[in-house]
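Please check this one:

***
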Amino acid sequence: MVAGPSALFESVKADLAKMTGRLVYIGERSDLAAANKLLGNAMIIGLSAVMADVLTLAQASDIHGEDAIKLLGMLDLNATVGGRGLNMAKGNFAPSFELVMARKDVRLMLETSGSRSMATLPAIAARMDQLIAAGHGAEDASVLGIDAVVRP
């Protein structure tokens, strides 16, 4: 990712292209490349933490970790980002998986894990409880992102 003055980018584009398999110019603002790198790394770190919880649940359920990860490979995570993620960014929390139902599943996950350490699910449960108490229980579970977007 490259950001900064477009004229400067155009003058070095060919040389930069030789150093990478993919070159993406993202705009004039000089901070955009660094900010977008943080967005990507947040996703990688967040997914790693969720996968740790999935592996913990697999262990607690006597399922081989490799089988649990193969299951994740069958999910279309790109569709989740493109669908649910885009709806979140737009502040659209129309229910397809109500927060109260998702919270029930998270309760079951935490019960299944027992005393094992979890990387993300306890914090997610606490946030869900706050949102349910604030009256968002019938909205989509993606309402977890409500504070990150401006609602119309």
In short: The chain has six helices and two strands. The mean pLDDT is 94. The beta strands are 2-3, 25-27.
